[in-house]
Amino acid sequence: METISSMDGTQIAYERTGNGPPLVLVHGTSADHTRWEIVRSPLEAHATLYAIDRRGRGESGDSPDYALEREFEDIAAVVDSIAEPVILLGHSFGALCSLEAALRTDNLLKLILYEPPIPIGDHYPDTEDVVTEMMALYEDGNAEEALVLFFTEVARVPPMELDALRAAPNWPARVAAVKSVIREVSLDDQYEFDATRFEDLTVPTLLLSGSESAPFLKAAIEALRTALPDNRVVVFDGHAHAVMNTAPDRFVDEVVSFLRESR
Q1: Is pLDDT above 80 for 110?
Q2: What are the φ/ψ torsions at residue 54 (nearest 5 degrees)?
Q3: DSSP one-letter code for 18
Q4: Pairing status of strand 231-236 against strand 205-210
Q5: Cys bridge to 195: 172, 182, 227, 251, which one at CB 3.0-4.6 A?
Q6: How crowded is residue 217: how many other Cβ atoms within 10 Å of its Cβ?
Q7: Phi, psi dihedrals of residue 208, rounded to the nearest 5°
Q8: pTM > 0.85
Q9: Whole-Å CA distances, 96 to 48, 83, 207, 223
């Protein structure tokens, strides 16, 4: 893997594969760059992939004091290091990081956001008790139970989708990263969405959502649909927050179609 130094000096690792226009992939909570393995091969035929390990994951470094702002800077640093305009694709927490990184770089060609967990109104789940329980499980040596609790009580993934996640090869890595999951769960205490900040973000944007996703994720997509000047929404009927696992062909088709569009 290659690395780039973020603004605070933390080394951010990424794996580069494929051929074509640069497509930067940003994983969500509990994952690392291997999150994309299921869809990597078909995407490589259409783009040069830069699959990032977010800070504290995989081969990326970390800092003693975690701050959400550093995550945004990490993604912008990778995008800025590429010699041509980039398509930036973020999933879940990685989509939030990608959205904010888009305000911190001038090297974007297009943006793809799959259900960033933006706190909107009363839709975002109350996570205080969940964080306490997750930490207790983790400290008792029950990391996998803590991770399952995150997916069921915070991400609200349906049983079919959770089964697909648990069957994927990177599930053990997700379990190993559960401590970093805990620091990301209380997002409503760390981030406030202000739609006016994105009024001038005119980069063409594809918003992806699942028809079976949790209400707070659907509310976030609707907020972005209203806030972003140039966007369109694609809904994966019958699927939720991880269509890369439950219907990878449909995910690839939508991404490749957007890559090919002339805007």
Answers
A1: yes
A2: -65, 160
A3: E
A4: parallel
A5: 227
A6: 25
A7: -105, 140
A8: yes
A9: 22, 24, 12, 13
Number of helical H runs and strand E runs in the chain: 11, 8
Question: Which two structure tokens, joined as six digits, stand for 17?
Answer: 């594969």
CA-to-CA dists, residue 142 to 136, 145, 178, angstroms: 9, 5, 10
Three state DSSP letters for 156-199 = CCCHHHHHHHHHCCCHHHHHHCHHHHHHHHCHHHCCCCCHHHHC
How does residue 40 score in pLDDT terms, banded at 50, 70 and 90?
Answer: very high
The residue type at 242: A
Beta 86-91 vs 108-114: how paired, if at all?
parallel
pLDDT reported for residue 66: 86
The token pair at 57 is 């994951």
> Does residue 233 register a pLDDT over 60?
yes
3-state secondary structure of 49: strand
What value does the CA radius of gyration of the chain take, rounded to a whole number of Å? 17
Output the pLDDT for position 76: 98
pLDDT in tens, 171-202: 998 898 898 888 888 765 788 899 999 999 99
